[in-house]
């Protein structure tokens, strides 16, 4: 039997086949609901209530096995019993979203797949315009996208807002960062100190 709504391939149907086909279409179309009835039919109501009971009883698996999801009461019960993720070798941090009403247990460190290694070269802090404290970090980053990079970062807080500056420059062994470019990048980083 061909599917309703799918184009038919092949020679045209005879008039007798067309009549049978129209009967199949008539059976496949659901009856229209009356606009005046505000409540669903009793059979549908029973099905919906049975489905909702089934969903309430069956456990729903977490969407990602790496991030176990627990309700706040389950997480508090585990803490009270003294259970933690440290026994498995993974230290877990609890994140609770009060607005959405869930608790998420996640690893405290989560390395990105694109980052192979990172090495801090220097960390500093200086005074900017108006007494702002500006934090500067320089580090190298070996990533799967783009190879070795040198990153110059600056950060400060003003008017309850966090301002960040990240300058990334290629720093491979074949073409290392030259001193002139480094001086220009440091000047840009040092100019980042006012709103």
Automatic annotation (TrEMBL):
Alphabetized Pfam families for the sequence: PsbP (PF01789)
Record region (Disordered): 70-90
Gene3D superfamilies per the UniProt record, alphabetical: Mog1/PsbP, alpha/beta/alpha sandwich
Domain PsbP C-terminal residue range list: 112-193
SUPFAM superfamilies listed in its UniProt record: Mog1p/PsbP-like
Any one cellular-component term (Gene Ontology): photosystem II oxygen evolving complex
One of the GO biological process terms: photosynthesis
GO molecular function, one term: calcium ion binding
Domain of life, per lineage: Eukaryota
InterPro entries: Mog1/PsbP_a/b/a-sand (IPR016123), PsbP_C (IPR002683)
Name assigned to this protein: PsbP C-terminal domain-containing protein
């Amino acid at each position: 039997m061909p599917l309703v709504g799918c184009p038919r391939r092949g020679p045209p149907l005879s008039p007798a086949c067309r009549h049978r086909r129209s009967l199949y279409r008539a059976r496949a179309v659901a009856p229209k609901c009356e606009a005046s009835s505000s409540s669903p039919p009793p059979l549908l109501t029973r099905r919906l209530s049975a489905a909702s009971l089934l969903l309430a009883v069956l456990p729903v698996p977490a969407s990602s096995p790496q991030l176990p999801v627990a309700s706040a009461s389950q997480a508090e019960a585990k803490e009270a019993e003294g259970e933690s993720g440290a026994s498995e070798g993974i230290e877990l941090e609890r994140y609770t979203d009060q607005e959405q009403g869930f608790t998420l247990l996640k690893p405290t460190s989560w390395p990105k797949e694109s980052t192979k290694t990172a090495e801090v070269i220097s960390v500093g802090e200086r005074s900017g315009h108006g007494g702002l404290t500006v934090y500067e970090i320089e580090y190298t980053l070996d990533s799967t996208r783009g190879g070795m990079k040198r990153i110059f970062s600056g950060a400060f807080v003003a008017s309850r807002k966090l301002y960040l500056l990240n300058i990334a420059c290629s720093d491979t062994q074949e073409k290392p960062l030259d001193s002139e470019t480094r001086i220009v990048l440091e000047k840009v980083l040092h100019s980042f100190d006012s709103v």
